[in-house]
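Supplementary material to the annual report.
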Amino acid sequence: MKVRTRFAPSPTGKVHIGNIRVAIYNWLFARHTGGEFVLRVEDTDIERSTPEAIHALFDTMEWLNLDVDGEPLYQTSRQQAHLDAAETLLEKGLAYKEDKGGTGQGECVIFRMPGTDVTFVDGIKGKMTKKAENMQDFVIVRSNGTPVFHLANVLDDIEQGITHVIRGDDHVENTFRHIALYEALGAEVPNFSHLPMIVNHQGKPYSKRDGDAFVGDYREKGFLPDALVNYLALLGWSPGDDREVMTREEMVEAFTLERCQSSAAQFDMKKLTWMNGEYMQKLPMDDFSAICFGELEKAGIDAEPEYAEKVFELVRERVRTVADIAPMVSYFFTDDYEYDEKAVSKKLQKDGVAETLAQVRAILEALPSFDMASTDKALHDFVEQSGLGFGAVMPPVRIAVSGTQSGPDLFPVLAVLGREQVLKRIDQAVARYLA
RNA sequence: GACCCCUUCGUCUAGUGGCCUAGGACUCCAGGUUUUCAUCCUGGCAACACGGGUUCGAGUCCCGUAGGGGUCGCCA
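Predicted assembly:
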């Protein structure tokens, strides 16, 4: 039988990072087995399930490039079917009506647990058993006439022909009940697998109040979708060898449920950042440039394309996230850049620096050609003749022309900036800090 | 509290009884790349939760203890 997995979130506006990881695992499993991956929108919470929230869900799926088979099923469209099924269970005596009181809303429909132990083999955790006496009957239709999650979820999984339910650990207790429901409904019980949860930096479950709990947060921070998917896939799964940076194809090829971890994993922003850097390096130059131009535009920086390309080349290998780009290159596009106060006081505002910069300026101004090799040779010669040492010459120059003490190799920076700008910037820095 | 589940370096993990004096990756630290650095290279620190078994032999199997998590809604 062809495998069918699903992602069944309730659209609440933002897609939780833990939920999307579940989606990724479902997607990987379906693709690995040559099966199908479908989407179901559990939109029964009318208040929160707005068109915007549903749009955000699709947008996230698309951004992460998790392709879905067929059209999504909207749970609200299935309400009558859910109710009909409850009626059937009632007729068969597998459910009963009762006024449980308390809220005083009248009678609800309650599913009768079969009174036998429930056992299933979890694709990740192995054999799971729950004794009959530890399970209770549960409500499947509220006294206001609306179906409860358990009923709707199971019925829709049957409707969509789901063969493998891969969901979070928090559903294991539900699974025992759901299996009883499948059986009462006369439906084939699918395979169940429960993924461990991911925890935050403090080792606690990710709550919505933690920062970085939603996919959008990572997008804003400049992570690439492929890197995020790769990182999340490895958070609780491994291919069994030492591979970490993997293409989608490689992950799909290697993915199995057996290789999924059964204990919780802690999200590590540093490792994600590293991995994202790996993906940034691998980006074709054209793609990288396109991203850079986009970032410049967002930052309100006007860039002349030919010049900008040269700048991008320079910072290419140092960029870790998309968000790094604008701050890293902004000084190339304006002479009104900020000076790092610490660098200024530590390296620029020191005895002799004014004199050194004056000499360097004179040398650079007199150079017949301002290319990389020329400035390189000229400054090396100067260092040697003056006996000052590189540490006393290069950092002040760098800070003067860029405002910071870190960045790409200095000579290419000077070359890209051009003589006019370099001289102007040295004058500007001297006037500002050494006058 | 009851019921389910989990436990290898700080973190993600490899490991399915001998190949483990436990491997890789991230982080961190040190050195190098005769200037900086968020790049690159080299090296280093660092773990089988604990206690009992089983076995010639246990990170790997069993039991217990401790710690952690999940669930106990007419939420999903």
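Chain A has a mean pLDDT of 92.
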